[in-house]
Amino acid sequence: MTPNEDDIRFMRVALAEARKALDDGEVPIGAVVVANGRIVGCGHNSTERLNDATAHAEMIALTAAMNNYGGKYLPDATLYVTVEPCLMCAGAIGWSQVKRIVYGADDEKRGYSTFVARQPFHPKAIVTKGVLADEAAELMRNFFAERR
Predict the structure, then answer these.
(1) What is the CA radius of gyration of the chain?
(2) Structure pTM?
(3) CA-to-CA distance for 13 and 50, rounded, in angstroms?
(4) 135 is catalytic
(5) Of 26, 58, 84, 135, which one is the catalytic site residue?
(6) How far apart are CA 30 and CA 12, in angstroms?
(7) What DSSP string runs through 33-89?
(8) Mean pLDDT rounded to a whole number for the chain
(9) Confidence grade of residue 1 (pLDDT, cut at 50, 70, 90)
(10) By three-state DSSP, how is residue 1 classified?
């Protein structure tokens, strides 16, 4: 599916979340959940701050969205995330029944597509990748270049 203006707009919000993670010394990944044209959840990596390996941007954004939505399923929602979700997050996205997943940069080392032959999301989910991928990838490259 081709990205549209809303995809660009909401991915910019996800990139702003990623920059918050970067400012906190976290891996710079941000996520935003949108339903009916409005943001219902957002988050950025907080694994170091929370001392929790599961505190990925997607997990935090999904939890916030479910709390705002009042239920464990998000069948009308789109998740925007700056980097391809890992296998753990892909599982959570699948279980939450997110309708559409939009991500920026591929994660060739830890992204879900490295580990699974078929899509782990809800069977009716639509995946759009590559939205603002260069900006998302640059954040990641710069983060790891400073630490090596």
Answers:
(1) 14
(2) 0.88
(3) 22
(4) no
(5) 58
(6) 10
(7) EEETTEEEEEEE--HHHHT-TT--HHHHHHHHHHHHHTSS--TTEEEEEEE--BHHH
(8) 93
(9) low
(10) coil
Whole-number Å distance between alpha carbons of 10 and 121: 20
73 is written with which tokens?
A: 């399923």
**Exposure on the CB side of residue 106, measured as CA atoms within 13 A:** 4
What are residue 10's phi and psi, to 5 degrees? -75, -30
Q: What pLDDT digit, counting tens, does each position of 84-138 carry?
A: 999 999 999 999 999 999 999 999 888 888 888 777 888 889 899 999 999 999 9
Please report the pLDDT score of residue 29 as a whole number.
97
- Residue 148's alpha-carbon distances to 54, 143, 145, in angstroms, are 24, 9, 5
pLDDT tens for each residue of 24-53? 999 999 999 999 999 999 999 999 999 999
Using CA atoms, how far apart are residues 142 and 116, in angstroms rounded to an integer? 28
State the residue for tokens 């809800």: 122
